[in-house]
Amino acid sequence: MPYLKIETNQSLDEAVVQALLKKSSLFTATLLNKPEKWIMVSIYQGVAMMFDGSAEPAAYVELKSISLTPEPCAALSKSLCEFLNAELGVSPERAYVEFWNINGKMFGWNGGTF
């Protein structure tokens, strides 16, 4: 049930958003070693966002997953920041990444929980 949410202050056209959604879904599945079937991704573009007093490209990312432990988060952050840089031109120092460990019993899907 991993969920990747990307917010950026950049305005992207619809074709770019759709391509980025596909790339982000596959990237997240690979990153977490999970089937893409379970990955959900959303992109919020054109968000009013300022970082360090500047409106240069920036991003805020949330990665939620069941049983996400703190140990891999530094490596996950590095990979996510590299992805944002490659795909959106957001420098790693202009992105925050928030990790959420989700209790499967507190997350619903298909009329039940995980």
H/E element order = EHEEHEEE
How much of the polypeptide forms β-strand, as a percent range?
A: 25-35%
Helicity range: 25-40%
Task: Tell me the overall shape.
Answer: globular
Which blocks of ≥5 consecutive residues have pLDDT under 50?
Answer: none
| Euclidean distance between termini CA atoms | 8 Å
Biggest beta-sheet profile? 4 strands, mixed
Average residue pLDDT: 97
Compute the number of strand runs.
Answer: 6
Number of helices: 2
Describe the structure.
It is a single chain. The longest helix has 19 residues, at 14-32. The strands form two sheets. The chain has a four-stranded mixed beta sheet, covered by helices on one side. The protein is α/β, with parallel strands linked by helices. The mean pLDDT is 97. It contains two helices and six strands, in the order βαββαβββ. The protein has helices spanning 14-32, 73-88, and strands at residues 3-8, 40-44, 59-66, 95-102, 108-109, 112-113. The radius of gyration is 14 Å and the shape is globular.
Blueprint (SSEs and pairs):
Elements: E1 3-8, H1 14-32, E2 40-44, E3 59-66, H2 73-88, E4 95-102, E5 108-109, E6 112-113
Features:
4-stranded mixed sheet, alpha/beta, globular, 6 strands, 114 residues, two-stranded antiparallel sheet
Quick synopsis:
It contains two helices and six strands, in the order βαββαβββ. By secondary structure, it is an alpha/beta fold.
